[in-house]
Amino acid sequence: MTTASVTAERRTSEASFGVVLRKVRNSYVLRRILRALFVIYLVATGVFFMVRLLPGNPVDVYINSQIAMYGKSYETAAAEAAALFSFDPGTPMWRQYVDYLVGIVRGDLGMSILSPGTSVVQKIALHLPWTLFSVGLAMIISVSIGLLLGMVMAYRRGGIIDHGVSTLGSVLHAIPNYLFAIMVVVIGAVQLHLIDFTRMRGHSTPGVTPEFSFRYLSDALYHATLPMVVYIFTTVGTWALVMKSSTTQILGEDYVTVARARGLGDGRIRSMYVGRNAVLPLVAQIATQAGFVVGGAIFVEQTFSYDGIGITLFQSINARDYPVIQGILLVITITVVLANLIADLVYSVLDPRIRTGERED
C-alpha cells in the first residue's frame, strides 16, 4: 500500500468520523440517548464502590449473625459461610468492577449471594411487579386528582377550596411517606382498630392462586391499599399546588385573554388553552417522580411488610448481598433516567422550540 493511499484512507475515515459527530450534534434524540447512557454508567460505577464502603461484607455479616443468634463459634460460622457462599472477599476490587461492568453489558446482573442458585434478575422479576403495581396505580390516581384540584384552585383563587386544599396539600407535602406509613399503622391499626393490618401484609393472601381473575386482582389490590394510600396522600398535595401555580400563570397570558375576547367557550379555553399549556411544564416532573417514588418505596414497603422491591432492597442491604443491591439500584437508576429521557422527548414534541433552541446554542 502506497503512502498516498494510506493518507487518502485516513482522510476518508476522519471525514466519516466528522460526519458521525455532526449527526450526533445535530440530533436532539441522539444527544439525549448518549447522555442517558453516560449517566447510567456513572451511577452504576458509583453504586459499585459505595456498596463496598458499607461496613462488613456478606461473609462477615453472616458470621456475626450466627454468633449473635445461635451462639456458634467463629470457626464454625466461618466454615458454614465458606460452604454456603460463593463470594470471595479476597478478590481484587478491579476484578470485581470489570466483571460487574461486563455483566451489565451482557444483561447479567449476577447471582444472589444469600440465595444460592437464584439470579438477581429472578429476584427483581419476582418483587418489582408488585412495587410497580402499587406505585404506578397510586401515581395515576395522585396525578389525576392533583391536576384537577390544581385547576379548580386556580380558577377559584381566594375561595374555600383554594385555602383548604392549599393548607392540606402543604401539610401532606411536608410529611415524609415513611412517617405517614407509621402513622397509618399506629393510629389506624393499633389505636383505632380501623385497619386489619395483619391480614393486609404481603402482596396477596396465602392460598389465593395467581391468575388473571377478578378474585386475584381484588386480593392484590386489597394488599396494596395501604402503600397506595400513603403514596397518594403524600404526593397529591404537591401536584395540586404545582398545577395551581402553573394554571395561574397561564391564565394571565395574552392568548387566553384573546381567546375569551373571541367568544370561545369556557370548556374549550380550559382544555385547549389553559389545561394543555399548564400541564406542559409538569411532564418532566411527573416522569421523574415515578422513578423516585419507586426508590422511596423501601421504607413504606418495610413498614407494611409489602413484598415489593423496596423491602427486598432493605433486606439485601442488611445482609450485604452486593449483587442484589447493585441490581436493584441499577434498575431504579435506569427507571429514573428512562423517565427523564421520555419526558425530554415528549416535551420536545409538545414544544418544538426546545429542539431548535438547543441547536442554535
Q: What descriptors fit this protein?
A:
single chain; 361 residues; mainly alpha; 79% helix; flat
Explain the layout of strands and helices.
Blueprint: H1 3-26, H2 28-52, H3 58-70, H4 74-84, H5 93-106, H6 120-155, H7 160-174, H8 177-191, H9 197-200, H10 214-251, H11 254-261, H12 266-279, H13 283-295, H14 297-304, H15 309-319, H16 322-350, H17 353-360
Helix pairs in contact: 2-16, 3-4, 6-7, 6-10, 6-13, 6-16, 7-10, 8-10, 8-14, 10-12, 11-12, 13-16, 14-15, 15-16
What does this structure look like?
This protein is mainly alpha-helical and 361 residues long. It has 17 helices and no strands. It has helices at 3-26, 28-52, 58-70, 74-84, 93-106, 120-155, 160-174, 177-191, 197-200, 214-251, 254-261, 266-279, 283-295, 297-304, 309-319, 322-350, 353-360. Helix 8 runs parallel beside helix 14. The radius of gyration is 26 Å and the shape is flat.
- Global morphology: flat
Which structural class matches the secondary elements? mainly alpha
Number of helices: 17
Estimate the mean pLDDT confidence: 80
Order of H and E elements? HHHHHHHHHHHHHHHHH
User: Would you identify the regions where 5 or more consecutive residues have pLDDT less than 50?
Assistant: none
Computed over alpha carbons, the radius of gyration is: 26 Å
Amount of beta strand:
under 5%
Roughly how much helix do the residues carry, as a percent range? over 70%
What does the largest sheet look like? none
